[in-house]
Description:
The chain is an alpha/beta fold. The protein contains 14 helices and 13 strands.
Amino acid sequence: MTAxxxxxxxxxxxxxxxxxxxxxxxxxxxxxxxxxxxxxENPHRLPAGLxxxxxxxxxxxxxxxxxDGRVNDLRRALADYAxxxxxxxxxxxxxxxxxxxxxxxxxxxxxxxxxxxxPGFVMYAMSAQLQGLKFIGVDLTPDFELxxxxxxxxxxxxKPSITYLAYPNNPTAKLWDDAVIENIINAVGGQGGLVVxxxxxxxxxxxxxxxxxxxxxxxxxxxxxxxxGLAGVRIGYMMGPKALIAEIDKVRxxxxxxxxxxxxxxxxxxxxxxxxxxxxxxxAQRAVLFDALSALPGVKAWRSDANMILIRVPDAARAFxxxxxxxxxxxxxxxxxxxxxxxxxxxxxxxxxxxxxxAALEQSL
Length: 365
């Protein structure tokens, strides 16, 4: 039997947008048999007792029915967990990736654009480009801080529809200066744009923008339960003024959150103290890992407010391959942006996983 040709039929190729053909799909590394430290996942699983309890609960769900009003129970639980301000509302997404895509769809007006600091989360640019919106990237400083003057100049020039500020940032893992963030928010508000504060890594950051949201009517706060400990469940949520959320929610597909997803999320929030303890363990391990990395000859490590650490090594490609050959998988971000030359991004794992990482890295340098 002849294998199918992997080349797209020219007649069909004409149906696909040219800009889409020139893009690369989001890459997910093969991780079977590896110490997986490439995707900022919580390294801890549910305790056995909670696994059994959750299994029984999921097994009793009516999978033959579409999601029902129970999803609103999750919205209320998340609003309570995140201490959502009065007069605000919450919107759910299939991970924060879907929320980013829906924002681009809702704000796709003539001349619309998206602005974000670089290096940053790749989905800000990808979602903008897929929706046909212009993307403006503003480089961070060499120390991965916000370049306030460059950001304000870009806002004044381009008047972006959406400005993303990750708090803390990926892959640099930093919480930026609050005064600079406030100046950027005011500048965006002055020209009629939205600011999205992306708090994907909030469980490890120790601070949040949520308490300051009521100061502004143009600020949205976005989070995910992926870093909370439910990466496989795919629940993102976004809070903002009710009238604003109501408009964006109009482009959300019906039933975008499955019954399995929302029941898992509700279960996790009922046991949030378990996940809070896991986050505290990650924070403790982060400190130990940072000190050990900083002591390695030829390694520069940046302090982190997330569950990852960015390092620079003499040769990122060689170190990455050395780690992979030793069954440790990290993220080689050295080609993402010139500021990340020879940089690797390491997820903070368990004490045992971090020890394996350190031993493999020392041998791979």
